[in-house]
Amino acid sequence: MPDLDIAEVARRAAVPASTLRYYEEKGLIASTGRRGLRRQFDPGVLERLALIALGRSAGFSLDEIARMFAPDGQPRIDRRMLADKADELDRTIRELGVLSDSLRHAAVCPAPSHLECPTFRRILRGAAGTLPAPAVPRRKAPRP
User: Fold this and answer.
1) Which end of the chain is more exposed for a tag (fewer CB within 10 A), N or C?
2) Higher-confidence residue: 139 or 48?
3) What 3-state class would DSSP assign to 141?
4) Degrees (nearest 5) of the Cα angle 22, 28, 32?
5) Closest C-alpha to 49, from 18, 15, 7, 81
6) How far apart are the first and last CA of the chain?
7) Is the pLDDT of residue 92 over 80?
8) Coil, helix or strand for 4?
9) CB-hemisphere CA count at 13 Å for 80?
10) What DSSP assignment string belongs to 27-94?
């Protein structure tokens, strides 16, 4: 299969040409040359871009993704790194589930004010991690 023009790669991979140029600058992909002013790429770049997109959607940085490729361009994916990222995603999913439940509670809470709702106050303390417990009004001691 002949080399692909940068515009064709951008269209097929659904990324802007500027992203392809940036990935090339970062060493994630390499053009095979130019035809006029347009970069040309081996058709295999599309699979590499799919791996990059998968890594990005999983939350890997571009530097981490770059380490997933051997110098010859072939994938060299560290399975431990994948397992660690999966664990991180599981934690994030749990945290987002709690946040979603909290927002649903706040949306239907019958308290006159969210700040009067003990559940909402607990949510605030958990979110900030530093807010003091709600103040309990002190009664004045009766005067003798």
Assistant:
1) C
2) 48
3) coil
4) 85
5) 15
6) 98
7) yes
8) strand
9) 0
10) TSS---EEETTEEEE-TTHHHHHHHHHHHHHTT--HHHHHTTB-TTS-B---HHHHHHHHHHHHHHHH
At 12, is the secondary structure helix, strand, or coil?
Answer: helix
* pLDDT tens-digit map of 7-66: 999 999 999 999 999 999 999 999 999 998 899 999 999 999 999 999 999 999 999 999
The number of residues making up the chain comes to: 144
Give the CA dihedral 123, 126, 132, 134, nearest 10 degrees. 20
Question: What is the torsional sign of CA 28, 32, 35, 40?
Answer: negative
- Least Cα distance to 29 among 14, 16, 15, 44 occurs for 44
Q: pTM to 2 decimals?
A: 0.71
Minimal CA–CA distance to 60: which of 41, 75, 42?
75
Strand partners, 40: 5, 33
